[in-house]
């Protein structure tokens, strides 16, 4: 199953919104075949692995699958039919699929067809790996990761200075891989006005489709020639005031729009639900300070990834949480440190929001 999970990881960036699964077929302690989920519309992991063995006698073989096989016709035919007709008699499954069309039915149908099914091997590890998919299916909302790049003294921005590179090249590459694992990247209007970012996956090879770029601009302040509105290489969704002329201008440039015309800030849970409808399993918040603070204030995040680079920004430097106001220490979100990585002189810390990350 460890090998099947390694296979699943190969589909991490290409499969969404389909869940990334991995499959290994083994007999007498030898791996006969393996596979992972193809991009949407393509084949699921078990079909990829089985096709490599067509016409082979699979008596006595075991099929290891990280996620329960589908039993309904979606973009592809049901996978359980292929497993049953392959002649394999034993299937080991990591975890059941929370999709309401499946949710245990795949296991049941295999058992009804006389196959021996073992369920739950490496379940916790697989659920953690698929947490954005599980969250999306259970809550109809996008799993949200806040990314922060800061100096040793905890600043994301020096006083009155343009954007600067705080972290080293390797950490920068890692942050682009994090982008690639997300189906949408979100920034606030001021970040566009200050930095004019492209917000695309660079410095690492792009796997799958480029993430959707989302920009919060409900006062319609961003100039139409901003890089974020150039849609040749990646799509953009702009949250606007809802003014008809502005929306039409953006649409004529290929920018999708979503209107927010209620008083007050745009609700973060509204954004998460709207993006979930567009197939965004994981949303990456890329700043700036005001935008991040809205997500912190609304407790609308599941993970916090902090890159710290070897710089000191000193007096006037701004912290990522500047806009968060807490009435007492008890209100501070409770976070669990789940991973630390070093990239040269820079480090990455990953925290889960204890109350929300794996629900
Ligand atoms: N080191 C890092 O990790 C990092 C990352 C990103 C940015 N930065 C730096 O941070 C600076 C920009 O940050 P910033 O804090 O000034 O601004 P920002 O967060 O980029 O943009 C804030 C603006 O976005 C809109 N917005 C954000 N959240 C909203 C919500 N929930 N509802 C409605 N509107 C919302 C508002 O636009 P309106 O004003 O129209 O209401 C708000 O004024 C840049 O200098 C950038 O270099 C650093």
Note the main attributes of this structure.
359 residues; alpha/beta; 5-stranded mixed beta sheet; 11 helices; 23% strand; binds NADP nicotinamide-adenine-dinucleotide phosphate
- The percentage helix is 25-40%
Distance N terminus to C terminus?
24 Å
Average residue-wise pLDDT: 94
Strand order of the largest sheet: 10-9-8-7-11-6-12-14-13
Number of helices: 11
Show unreliable segments: none
Largest sheet, if any? 9 strands, mixed
Write down the oligomeric state: single chain
Structural class: alpha/beta
H-E order: HEEHEHEHEHHEHEHEEHEHEHEEE
Q: Bound compounds, please?
A: NADP nicotinamide-adenine-dinucleotide phosphate
Give me the Rg, rounded.
22 Å
User: Total number of β-strand segments?
Assistant: 14
Please indicate the percent range of residues in DSSP E strands (runs of 2 or more): 15-25%
Describe the global form.
elongated
Describe the structure.
- This protein is an alpha/beta fold.
- It is 27% helix and 23% strand.
- It contains 11 helices and 14 strands.
- A 9-stranded mixed sheet has the order 10-9-8-7-11-6-12-14-13.
- Strand 7 (184-188), helix 8 and strand 8 form a beta-alpha-beta unit.
- The longest helix has 13 residues, at 169-181.
- It starts with a helix and ends in a 6-residue tail after the last strand.
- The structure holds NADP nicotinamide-adenine-dinucleotide phosphate (NAP).
Question: In short, what is this structure?
Answer:
With 359 residues, the chain is an alpha/beta fold. Helices cover 27% and strands 23% of the residues.
């Amino acid at each position: 199953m460890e090998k099947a999970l390694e296979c699943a990881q190969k589909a991490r960036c290409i499969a969404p919104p389909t869940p990334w699964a991995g499959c290994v077929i083994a007999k007498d302690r030898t791996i006969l075949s393996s596979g992972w989920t193809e991009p949407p519309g393509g084949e699921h992991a078990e079909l990829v692995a089985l096709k490599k063995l067509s016409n082979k006698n699979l008596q006595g073989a075991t099929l290891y699958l990280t996620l329960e096989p589908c039993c309904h016709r979606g973009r592809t035919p049901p996978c359980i039919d292929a497993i049953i007709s392959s002649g394999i008699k034993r299937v080991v499954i990591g975890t059941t699929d929370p999709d309401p069309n499946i949710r245990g039915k795949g296991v049941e149908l295999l058992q009804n067809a006389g196959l021996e099914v073992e369920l739950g091997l490496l379940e916790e590890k697989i659920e953690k790996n698929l947490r954005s998919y599980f969250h999306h299916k259970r809550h109809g909302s996008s799993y949200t990761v806040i990314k922060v790049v800061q100096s040793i003294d905890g600043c994301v921005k020096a006083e009155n200075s343009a954007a600067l590179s705080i972290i080293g090249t390797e950490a920068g590459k890692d942050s682009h891989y994090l982008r690639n694992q997300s189906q949408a990247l979100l920034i606030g209007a001021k970040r566009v006005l200050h930095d004019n970012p492209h917000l695309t996956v660079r410095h690492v090879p792009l796997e799958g489709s480029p993430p959707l770029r989302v920009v919060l601009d409900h006062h319609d302040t961003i100039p139409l020639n901003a890089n974020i509105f150039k849609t040749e290489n990646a799509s953009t969704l702009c949250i606007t005031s809802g003014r008809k002329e502005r929306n039409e201008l953006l649409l004529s440039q290929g920018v999708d729009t979503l209107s927010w015309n209620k008083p007050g800030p745009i609700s973060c849970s509204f954004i998460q639900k709207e993006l979930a409808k567009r197939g965004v399993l994981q949303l990456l918040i890329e700043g700036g300070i005001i935008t991040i603070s809205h997500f912190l204030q609304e407790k609308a995040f599941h993970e916090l990834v902090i890159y710290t680079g070897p710089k000191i920004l000193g007096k006037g430097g701004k912290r990522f949480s500047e806009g968060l106001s807490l009435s007492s220490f008890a209100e501070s979100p409770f976070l669990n440190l789940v991973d630390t990585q070093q990239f040269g002189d820079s480090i990455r810390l990953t925290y889960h929001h204890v109350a929300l990350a794996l629900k």
